[in-house]
Amino acid sequence: MDLKYYVVDAFADGPFTGNPAGVCLLEEPLSAELMQKIAAQNNLAETAFVCQNGDDYDLRWFTPATEINLCGHATLASAFVLHNFARKQEEYKFHTMSGLLTVRPQGDLFEMDFPAWPVQPVEITELMQQAVGCDILEAHAARDLLLVLENEAAMRAVTPDFAAMIEIPDYHGVVATTAKTESCEGCDFVSRVFAPKVGIPEDHVTGSVHSELIPFWAARLGKDKLLARQLSRRGGTLYCENRGGRVNIAGKARLYLTGEIYV
To answer: Is 46 among the catalytic positions?
Structure first.
């Protein structure tokens, strides 16, 4: 069996920026065991597996360690691959573990319609402080643990303690965030994302986390259209909109490579 395979930098501002995602176009579904083995060998934050389902598509995402319920950058990358290498459509509908997701090409952006996940305040613990190695102003939680830091300088100074992060119960990843930015002109908020529990020490750009960050910062800042940056080594830009129970997350994408996988 030969699989068409692409690596796309999602939320990329230029070469070697954004978050690389593997995209496998399938002619028929694969077993979860085989998809997990392929994702482990690819060793990217996520590998997406896309299989046509009528006019729509079935979409699943795997980290090197496990299947996950929502992934933004690999969804954007999947739509980019379909649009450029399969068939051009005004919108792409994906059936996923998180329900129906829609992606619409808008010029050089791909705009994703995602669920909004409200967060609830939680108590700051010593383990949380240890996990990021700095003072935390507030802690909030949904799928992920959101830690509000004082400013961008504190964000950049975070030295993650991955052992401590793994010990924090109940959460997929740990997100450090602030709206006080110094170097990111025009940005409303910035973040860094760590997910060692699923095999990703620091993620480059994390679309799914913005299902939590967008409604959180929209309420705090009193605006629904927001510009966000993820302050990883590669970095990336996300164009965001709060829409009540849903959010729009848009970004650019760049093709890095094409190839075939032989299994």
So the answer is: yes
12 Cβ contact list (under 8 Å, min separation 6): 18, 19, 236, 251, 252, 253, 254
Q: Measure the CA–CA gap between 184 and 187, rounded to whole angstroms.
A: 6
CATH assignment, 2-107+251-262: 3.10.310.10
For residue 95, the number of C-alpha atoms closer than 13 Å in the C-beta half-sphere is 8
- Give the CATH class of 120-244: alpha beta
Q: What is the pLDDT of residues 40-61, one digit of tens each?
A: 999 999 999 999 999 999 999 9
158 phi and psi angles, rounded to 5 deg: -60, 125
CA 189/CA 13 separation, integer angstroms: 17
The single residue of 28, 33, 46, 90 carrying the catalytic annotation is: 46
Which amino acid, one-letter code, is at 78?
S
List of residues 6+ apart from 66 with CB closer than 8 A:
36, 198, 199
Whether pTM > 0.85 for this model: the answer is yes
